[in-house]
Amino acid sequence: MNANTSRQSPAEGEESAQLFTRTARDLPSGRHQFHKERLMAQIHEARQEERTTAAAPGGTRRLRLPRPAIALPVLAAALAGVVVFGVANTGGNGVRDGGVATGPALTTTVGVATTKGLPQLLDQITLAAAEDVHPVVKPGQYVYIESKSADTFLKTVGDKTSLASHQLHTRQLWESPDGTKGWLIDPAVNDSPEGETLSLPDEQGNTPKAHLGAPSYDYLTKLTTDPDELLAKIYKETEGQGNTPDQQAFTTIGDLLTQSYPPAELYSALFKAAAKIPGVVVVNDAVDAVGRHGVAVARLDETSGLREEWIFDAKTHVFLGERSVQVKRLTGTDALIKPGTVTYTSAILKRAIVDGIKQTPSQAG
Known about the structure:
Elements: H1 10-26, H2 29-55, H3 73-84, E1 102-103, E2 113-114, H4 118-131, E3 142-157, E4 160-175, E5 182-185, E6 196-197, H5 217-221, H6 227-237, H7 245-259, H8 264-274, E7 281-287, E8 293-300, E9 306-312, E10 319-326, E11 342-354, H9 361-364
Antiparallel strand pairs: 1-4, 2-7, 3-4, 3-11, 4-5, 5-6, 7-8, 8-9, 9-10, 10-11
Helix pairs in contact: 1-3, 2-3, 4-8, 6-8, 7-8
């Protein structure tokens, strides 16, 4: 990319900002933070390389961005405009704590992955999902999801990049069935302990339609429950996203499992669809964010070296949570993210239907 021809016009900058806002909303906070900081660190590294080249005899000023270790096209485009051209709002370190203390990188022992027993495990998970009764959400009610999460991210201060983490914290989400009203309390992203509204339209006046990356309950009720048709739809609507179609399909299903409350039939169909994605494996011992051990259905992203793990109770096969674990060594700035680094971890504590925004199941009686 040539530095002299890459500056965005005001209209393009505004569009990138809107795209960035929608992308940030669609991703879980910890996962968004990790990808954002990882990309910013890579851009920082590229700029350092540019300065070195320019200072060398006969050097030319040419900024060449590295290929992101994990491809998030919209996020990458927005950040390239915001960071490379010096309009970042991060005060130089690229980290927003949101009141949550930062600590050392989260680590774990990398579990052994195998395909042995995968069909049987997925069958058991599907049966357990089919037996799980999900209440129907009525107009005026809200889907409530309470979880614990933590994440590790690249933190850049001046010319130094290091790993830091957001401590384990509670995340509470409320969303109306049509997705137009909601509230989020997440210390990793909220400036106020009271949280912030997710009600639409957003700050730019947009009312985005629900889609696979940001589904409403009403949207989920209209999805097919045929596993083959469902998987085909996921592949089609996520085309061009992620590093590979298979990895993006796996990630999309994982987000639907953790960030929404799918109707009972769809919940079961999602697991049947996941069973058809190439490269899915079993990790016989995985731990969620609150320390519960279980068995994981997982897939390795060969490009980024991250393995996404969906963790289930080994006996009941109830879904517990998810985590992303680095399993491959990387180069450059990314070499800081060593194998065993947990870039994101979460545990679902409660998922219920409540009658009011900011109401919890205990208050509902």
